[in-house]
């Protein structure tokens, strides 16, 4: 593991290690990782002028008549790719995307997050996040055939993913990514590797790296890793619980030792912002038709807009692992899934929290009872509302949201809504096997 501070460090390392190629990584509007490779000889020019490419075929990028884009690599993100051959290795760097006139490209999700982080920085805050991405191991990408029938925290022989997770952790560590722990999750063949929290832009890059590292390591073992939110009927889906906090210099702005919950006024307003705007931003954090097959009662996924400390049936939780410890004080937003675009997801969460702080939103009382067991009338009397139940409902909420539009920018907002409407219409006209099995014998 090593780190590069600037372009000179990268140039030196590529010479010393006889690097064969360097992949330039960036992300489309839907969070799909894109890349092209350059030779070491092109790096000096890439650092000073960037590398041009055609953006017209990248989802959510430019129209054909505006297709010229420039990728400028971030030298501090340089790492080797451990799944590539050790002899004459390959490296990678994340890139910022610019227009030919040198201005940042408004369709770049990494830039959208940078804009929101600057907004927080102007208020004296640094945004830290720690996402927990769950995923499945399957025998292939053709069908969700599980490898094991293990459950939560099971060990071998029930957990057949131990070696897969171990090798993935080695890969992540070689790429400079700090891992806290790993374990088998609740559903058969479902797993989780938890990463140490970091500043949000770095964590966006880390999340993208994590997903490809998990999948590449699985491929080397002859299996398929999937971050699909709900691949198995009747089993828990995969979430991406996002732990988050704001710091002012080295102090946690969410911490108040004198509060019964150890939460500051800033933290309470931030939570209130997430709660108030959850239905608007859920299309960003849960962006696929399949995402809403996970967000149903009974499978540990948060459906109801509420918060608590110990209650995992709520959408926002304040973890109590280390009560009273300043650096450990944080909130956990449990609705997102691991198939989202992390840059946009972090941006809209931060936007909602900052809005709560700026407008001094009042935090409702926590709900420590099991919300799933409440009657509909009881939930209504408690003021507990539900998240959108389908991608269509989420699109309707999102399209009306000024907060989301401002957070991710007009260009990305428009392209995202257009894409999601097409996805919903494509899904809506499908005739599924469920319909054939149920209705064909009836009529």
Sum this structure up briefly.
This protein is of the alpha+beta class and 443 residues long. The chain is 35% helix and 20% strand.
Low-confidence stretches: none
Cα end-to-end separation = 64 Å
Q: CATH homologous superfamily of the largest domain?
A: Glutamine synthetase/guanido kinase, catalytic domain
Helical run tally: 13
CATH topology of the largest domain: Creatine Kinase, Chain A, domain 2
Strand content: 15-25%
**CATH hierarchy: architecture of the largest domain:** 2-Layer Sandwich
What quaternary form is this?
A: single chain
Mean pLDDT score: 91
Structural class: alpha+beta
Structure write-up:
This protein is an alpha+beta fold and 443 residues long. Helix 6 crosses helix 10. The model has no long low-confidence stretch (mean pLDDT 91). It has two domains: 7-105, Roll (Ubiquitin-like (UB roll)); 114-433, Creatine Kinase, Chain A, domain 2, CATH 3.30.590. Strands 7, 8, 9, 10, 11, 12, 13, 14, 15, 16 and 17 form an eleven-stranded mixed sheet that branches. Strands 1, 2, 3, 4, 5 and 6 form a six-stranded mixed sheet that branches. The chain is built from 13 helices and 17 strands.
Tags for this entry?
443 residues; alpha+beta; Ubiquitin-like (UB roll); Creatine Kinase, Chain A, domain 2; 2 domains; eleven-stranded mixed β-sheet; six-stranded mixed β-sheet
Q: Topology of this structure?
A:
Elements: H1 7-16, E1 21-27, E2 33-38, H2 43-49, E3 51-54, E4 68-73, E5 79-80, E6 90-98, H3 109-122, E7 126-138, H4 162-174, E8 179-184, E9 190-195, E10 198-199, H5 200-220, E11 224-226, E12 240-248, E13 251-252, H6 265-285, H7 291-294, E14 304-308, E15 314-317, E16 331-333, H8 342-358, H9 376-381, E17 385-386, H10 391-399, H11 402-408, H12 410-428, H13 433-439
Parallel strand pairs: 1-6, 14-15
Antiparallel strand pairs: 1-2, 3-4, 4-6, 5-6, 7-9, 7-10, 7-11, 7-12, 8-9, 12-13, 12-16, 14-17, 15-16
Helix pairs in contact: 3-8, 4-5, 6-8, 6-10, 8-11, 10-12, 11-12
């Amino acid at each position: 593991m090593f780190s590069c501070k600037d372009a000179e460090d990268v140039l030196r390392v590529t010479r010393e290690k006889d690097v064969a190629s360097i992949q330039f990584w960036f992300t489309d509007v839907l969070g799909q990782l894109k890349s092209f490779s350059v030779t070491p000889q092109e790096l000096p020019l890439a650092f000073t002028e960037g590398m041009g490419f055609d953006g017209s075929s990248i989802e959510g990028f430019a129209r054909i008549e505006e297709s010229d884009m420039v990728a400028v690599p971030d030298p501090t993100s340089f790492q080797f790719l451990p799944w590539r051959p050790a002899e004459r290795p390959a490296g990678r760097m994340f890139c910022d995307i610019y227009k030919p006139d040198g201005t940042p490209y408004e369709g770049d999700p990494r830039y959208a997050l940078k804009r929101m982080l600057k907004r927080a920085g102007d208020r004296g805050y640094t945004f830290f996040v720690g996402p927990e991405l769950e995923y499945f191991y399957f025998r292939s990408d053709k069908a969700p055939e599980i490898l094991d029938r293990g459950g939560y925290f099971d060990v071998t022989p029930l957990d057949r993913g131990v070696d897969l997770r171990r090798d993935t952790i080695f890969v992540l560590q070689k790429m400079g990514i700090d891992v806290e722990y790993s374990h088998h999750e609740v559903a058969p063949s479902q797993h989780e590797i938890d990463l140490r929290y970091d500043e949000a832009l770095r964590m966006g890059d880390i999340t993208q790296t994590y997903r490809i590292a998990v999948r590449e390591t699985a491929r080397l073992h002859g299996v398929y890793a999937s971050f699909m939110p709900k691949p198995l009927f009747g089993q828990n889906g995969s979430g991406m619980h996002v732990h988050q906090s704001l710091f002012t210099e080295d102090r946690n702005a969410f911490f108040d030792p004198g509060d019964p919950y150890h939460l500051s006024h800033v933290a309470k307003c931030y939570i209130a912002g997430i709660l108030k705007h959850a239905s608007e931003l859920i299309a960003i954090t849960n962006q696929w038709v399949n995402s809403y097959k996970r967000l149903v009662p009974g499978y540990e996924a948060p459906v109801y807009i509420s918060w608590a400390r110990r209650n995992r049936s709520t959408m926002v939780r304040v973890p109590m692992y280390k009560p009273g410890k300043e650096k450990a004080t944080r909130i956990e937003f449990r609705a997102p899934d691991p198939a989202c675009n992390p840059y946009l997801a972090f941006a809209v969460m931060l936007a909602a929290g900052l809005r709560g702080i700026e407008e001094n939103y009042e935090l409702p009382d926590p709900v420590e009872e099991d919300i799933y067991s409440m009657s509909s009338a009881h939930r209504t009397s408690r003021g507990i509302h539900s998240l959108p139940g389908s991608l269509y409902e989420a699109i309707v909420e999102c399209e009306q949201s000024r907060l989301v539009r401002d957070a991710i920018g007009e260009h990305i907002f428009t392209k995202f809504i257009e894409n999601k409407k097409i996805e919903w219409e494509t899904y809506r006209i499908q005739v599924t096997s469920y319909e054939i099995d149920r209705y064909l014998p009836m009529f």
